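User: Structure tokens for this complex, please. No commentary.
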Amino acid sequence: AQTVTQSQPEMSVQEAETVTLSCTYDTSESNYYLFWYKQPPSRQMILVIRQEAYKQQNATENRFSVNFQKAAKSFSLKISDSQLGDTAMYFCAFMKHPGNQFYFGTGTSLTVIP
Amino acid sequence: GAGVSQSPSNKVTEKGKDVELRCDPISGHTALYWYRQSLGQGLEFLIYFQGNSAPDKSGLPSDRFSAERTGGSVSTLTIQRTQQEDSAVYLCASSLSGTGGGYEQYFGPGTRLTVT
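Assistant:
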């Protein structure tokens, strides 16, 4: 079975600063996808970034980037130039490939302080 | 285009009553998922539909929970004889995921269920 662990229940960051959210996972699969989702107070889950395990290059989406360490089974999310709108719960998720079931971490609540 | 929609957005029901929660996935998405999110918690997988295949019901917590997906599109999650511990936000997601997998899920806004 796959497990996803987010060890930081809560974090805060000053506006315009950089913050890194941690995620580790446990799997015996060799091919899989990893995701970071954002859930703001509005409750709508939004995809932030996706990483294919076979790709060595870390994914980047504007201010969001990941540090994917396959051997260490680590998948951290870095948010640069934090904005007030980044305040949300962030969930790390794993999906084996091929396959369709997602496994989510318990989330990290991020607060951006003005 | 239209995203995943869910109805109702909020539902208050009395203990012991049955409830139905509806999910309209994105058109063309073959995969549909239901999750439960209790207050301050992560997402708990409930059930997964893929095309015309038999659903993966491995996450349903009890036989009071059931779901169907008609015509490969709209899905209904039914909770019979609701209990207070069923109070949670129920999220639906859809994806293009086929046999290859790997496609991200698109989530609906959820239905907040409160059992009194």
